[in-house]
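Q: I have 364 residues here and want to know how they pack in 3D. Can you give me a structure?
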Amino acid sequence: MAALAELPQTTRRLLLASDCDDHSDDLARILKNAGSVEAISIHDLPDHPASDFAGVIVDIDLTSAATVQRVRSKLTREPYQALPRLFVLADSLHHGPTQAWALGATDTISRPLDPESILHRIRQVFPDMPEDERTADARILSNGVTAALVVMSKIFRRLPAGIPLTIADVMEAEMQILRALKRCSLRQWLIAINKHHNRSYRHTLHVTGYAVAFAQHLCMREEDQRRLTRAALLHDVGKAFIPVPILDKKGRLTDEEISVLAQHTRLGYNALREQRGFPSEVLDVALHHHEMLDGTGYPEGLHGSRISDIVRIITLVDTYASLLEPDAETSAMSPEQAFAIMELMDNKLDGALRQAFRPVALGL
């Protein structure tokens, strides 16, 4: 093995869970240059990891159904949510990162193992921080998700009942969401919200997470990040007025149901306008986030320059999030497949924004 760059002393403690016969000895030797390593079998993963672990490394054969089920039953539970979870995958495995993500991974690396690259990734993914800082990160993420869900409840439960929604309700949540996505990864955000049973809630919070991550990737000003968060949270507000059997239907929608669903843009615009106090750009997003640059969208068939920049961003992110979600006819796409579909959409979406979004979409 090539000589490794000498690393400073660290108190980082790592849990290595492996399904290999040799307990991933080659990987363990590399990891010992980044901290102390406790190697166990995947089948011995504890229900509650020790509080002083900096993170978990999982060396797994994703073709083994029994192993996959064991990992899923452990890592998707709350006790592991505060810990980074790095999966080591076979380089030949098709869609391996997507499968690992579904099992609770927060990052992945592939074999063959390159010691320097692995140690660099370990320092990034598993910062040597005290337990109280890790706990603080988990709390900030939880607060952000909770704040977002409170807004979803106000939109989908209270607004149709005539209980007002105010801009203050949304602005209070957006600060906590931004803070969560600054301190934690987009993957951690997505894992947390994917636990929610309501499909409409999940979709809106997917769009919000990707929109914030995109804004941060573009180094937008704080105020612009807040504007985009606000627009993402409210873009589908009109779905609160669509019959639940249509929103939650598992089978293919009829033409009549599609027509009813398409009314959500106008319904959302009208609802926010009646509430008063919402910025014009939020109304613009609610009404026009299904418009396409080539004029084929709805409800007004807007074309080119008539579509604002903030609408273009939300439309892009909304399209991507929708492609990732399974429907009655197709299973969930991988990020690579979803982005490829968006590239085939050509001049329907803003090409410059689409390419800028690529690293966020694919986790590059």
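Q: Anything worth noting?
A: Confidence is low (pLDDT under 50) at residues 1-10. The chain has two domains: 13-128, 132-362.
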